[in-house]
Amino acid sequence: xxxxxxxxxxxxxxxxxxxxxxxxxxxxxxxxxxxxxxxxxxxxxxxxxxxxxxxxxxxxxxxxxxxxxxxxxxxxxxxxxxxxxxxxxxxxxxxxxxxxxxxxxxxxxxxxxxxxxxxxxxxxxxxxxxxxxxxxxxxxxxxxxxxxxxxxxxxxxxxxxxxxxxxxxxxxxxxxxxxxxxxxxxxxxxxxxxxxxxxxxxxxxxxxxxxxxxxxxxxxxxxxxxxxxxxxxxxxxxxxxxxxxxxxxxxxxxxxxxxxxxxxxxxxxxxxxxxxxxxxxxxxxxxxxxxxxxxxxxxxxxxxxxxxxxxxxxxxxxx
Length: 319
Fold this sequence. Notes:
Layout: H1 2-30, H2 42-53, H3 60-72, H4 90-125, H5 130-144, H6 147-161, H7 178-211, H8 214-221, H9 226-263, H10 269-278, H11 282-310
Helix pairs in contact: 1-11, 4-5, 4-7, 4-9, 5-7, 6-7, 6-9, 7-9, 9-10, 9-11, 10-11
């Protein structure tokens, strides 16, 4: 009962937060002047007609009400400024662009989570030894280096010097074929370095603290070997804060893939989001902003609920 009340309360707060951010984004983007590239000829006339027909010159409160009404009717707007998708429904383009973004982030998570946690466990078990120092040094390097630099290094080493992968993602919609998977790997590797380093640092810190706890000493005095105490007691307690961080890391990677998608020519929503800002395409900007806002809000709720799933002693909503 407490959990149901807590979930309903969080959902209510999530909806309120989303609406506030949604309105702020809408007002700010609508305060910018409407700019149409007149060099496109007849397309410019069509764009002006579309803008006028959809009430883009109305007062901002009127535009907001009309926009929300159209959303409930399944109309998320049309592109007026993007040269590639001009006069196309933004929802159809969004659905087309979503799979590459989701796939590279899922592949990155699958690759980085086990490797990062394994390195963190190994570093904790070898605390203050040369293995720990090597892993900790590598972790600090990859956490400190911006993802943009890592992406260029991946392109230079894996694509140019070694020739293991193509420089850019393969065109097409055959997302689950080997050539397409291979072309995604440079972007996946570039996004994984920072995640692996983050998981390794966090896991090492949590497991090191647990291994020095009093209950671990008690477990050893009762006859458990170091391996048994670590596997059955230390890892379980250390995973309580680690597992929710995986969800948070996935969201941060999804948000951070905006630049990575541009560098590796991933035809996903990240590049589309940047283009919507560059071309001041209002409907694209609002749809994609709502997408990223909802991801962050749902992830926050899932992180809180996951604590109770991992550790039954934790009950969210209980006073």
